[in-house]
Design brief:
46% helix, two-stranded antiparallel sheet, 21 helices, mainly alpha, 6 strands, two-stranded antiparallel ribbon
């Protein structure tokens, strides 16, 4: 494991990030621009700002998201180069995601250290930062979110807890530096994350009218009450994920989180909003507009469902013109998913629908979790409750700015709530959140309209000849079940890597995770 992942206090803070703090005074410039290689001189506010951006940049970066989870969920499809659509996943993608995740986690852990060190905690709580306890609580929530992403991608991973002294939970231990941490099992990680979120949420709800980190917190502008709702809403997600494995524990956390308060409208959504100015544009914008690339289009799967040609809703979805653009001929045409390389470039970027302007905006707000997802989780928990299902669909349509009359028309056309219909709508609502959509596809097997090996994805007629192109993965037999561990783990943390593989299964994309077995 390379040293920069676990080295104490390492973080990067671009000077341009000051544009995220438009509401702050000019006096913050000096503080923000302190030497990033001297973390002992940095305030917890600037560390939090850096960690939030690192975390969301990483989850939605081009390799992990655009070339990974967004393809696995079949929201997008490649033209010209289609290897990742057929699950030939470079191992280097894992290394980038893994390394940057632990850098963000180290920053969050640094906030906890500064707020618990007797010699530093009074300074840490100065100014707009807020109390030591509240700062620690928010750092714990973001750590739980980051670790959930890591374990859902890889399975067993090095893990760090705040409240649990388990010797397996010392990945971010810094005295001495821990360069070869053990891997914790996914079961233990999930159980501890639930407890971390419960404890952090309980702390923040006691001081729900207080603010922590102020405008340095891009997600909630320091509002403790919203952070508490986010902690409880994440518990719904995680408790649902382990429901078949640990039903009693899942039920306890789900009901406790509901009782203490979860998202009740889109105003509660956890969103990291980017800026229109460099270097703070949204990841998708940087990967497409900035890089001047158009080799990713909306997949034919998503387009056909939104047009009412697939799935269980037989009317056009009002999100279609928001999720996608029309092609040069003025039509919505999805790029056939997973074509062989020889056929992938036969359709040009002008022939198919690219991501919509709102989705691909420089100032797009990347969603960590939203009210629509919470409603679908509640519907599932209550045996496919109709009202929660309607609430989820309505929330998604409202979030994307659909007109009230169009919302009413679409809601009237919805089939009754059941497993397929609720999970289909959840899939549509999770558009742009490829990481969570990928996990839900693995957990539930829905939606069933996704392309499977052997399916014809494009029938092309040219020069009087018709050719059928079928989806044939290059690796595995369907949607990848995990990512490969980073190659560097085998050179710097070999023993722990080998132990993880022995406990979990082969280090390949066909090995199921604990909650998916």
């Amino acid at each position: 494991m390379k040293k920069s992942i676990y080295q104490k206090g390492i973080f990067s803070l671009a000077i341009g990030m000051v544009t995220l703090l438009a509401s702050c005074s000019d006096s913050h410039f000096e503080e923000i621009n302190k030497d990033p290689n001297r973390p002992e001189n940095a305030t917890t506010t600037t560390i939090l700002l850096s960690a939030e951006k690192q975390l969301i940049d990483n989850i939605r970066n081009e390799n992990f998201s655009l070339r990974g989870s967004q393809l696995f969920a079949q929201y997008y499809s490649q033209n010209i180069y289609s290897d990742q659509s057929r699950y030939d996943i470079p191992r280097a993608y894992s290394d980038t995601y893994w390394s940057n995740a632990y850098k963000a986690l180290n920053n969050l852990n640094e906030i906890i250290i500064l707020n618990t060190d007797p010699a530093k905690k009074d300074v840490a709580a100065a100014g707009v930062a807020g109390t030591n306890a509240n700062q620690i609580a928010i750092a714990r929530i973001l750590k739980a979110y980051a670790f959930q992403g890591l374990t859902d991608a890889f399975g067993n991973v090095p893990y760090q807890s705040y409240g649990n002294p388990d010797p397996e939970f010392q990945a971010l231990q810094q005295n001495p530096e821990n360069l070869s941490p053990a891997y914790a099992s996914q079961q233990k990680i999930y159980q501890d994350i639930l407890n971390e979120l419960k404890s952090a949420g309980d702390t923040l709800i006691k001081y729900k009218t207080a603010t922590t980190f102020g405008n340095y917190d891009v997600i909630y502008k320091g509002k403790n009450e919203l952070w508490a709702k986010f902690a409880n809403s994440l518990r719904l997600r995680i408790a649902t994920r382990i429901r078949t494995k640990l039903p009693a524990e899942s039920k306890t956390h789900f009901e406790d989180a509901l009782a203490k308060g979860v998202f009740t409208s889109n105003a509660d959504n956890a969103v990291f909003k980017y800026q229109a100015l460099a270097p703070n544009e949204a990841p998708l914008y940087r990967a497409t507009v900035t890089a001047n690339r158009k080799d990713f289009a909306v997949s034919h799967v998503l387009i056909n469902v939104l047009k009412g040609e697939m799935g269980t809703v037989k009317v056009e979805d009002p999100r279609l013109p928001i999720y996608a653009t029309k092609n040069a001929a003025g039509e919505y045409v999805g790029q056939p998913y997973g074509l062989p390389v020889a056929a992938a470039g036969l359709l040009t970027a002008t022939d198919v629908s690219l991501p919509g302007a709102a989705v691909n905006a420089a100032s797009y707000g990347e969603v960590l979790q939203e009210y629509a997802e919470v409603s679908f989780l509640v519907s599932e928990y209550k045996n496919w409750d109709q009202q929660a299902y309607i609430n989820g669909v309505t929330a998604s349509l409202q979030k994307w700015g659909v007109a009230p009359a169009d919302i009413a028309t679409y809601i009237a056309a919805l089939p009754k709530a059941d497993k397929a219909n609720v999970l289909n709508q959840k899939y549509l609502a999770l558009y742009t959140q490829g990481d969570e959509a990928w996990s839900e596809i693995r957990r539930t097997g829905y939606p069933t309209f996704l392309v499977k090996p052997g399916d014809v994805v494009w029938r092309r007629t040219a020069n009087g000849q018709t050719a059928d192109y079928k989806f044939q993965p290059l690796f595995g037999e369907g949607v990848p079940l995990r990512l490969y561990y980073p190659p560097k783990e085998q050179s710097v943390n070999l023993v722990n890597y080998q132990n993880a593989v022995k406990a979990q299964g082969n280090d390949d994309i066909t090995t199921s995770l604990w909650w998916d077995k």
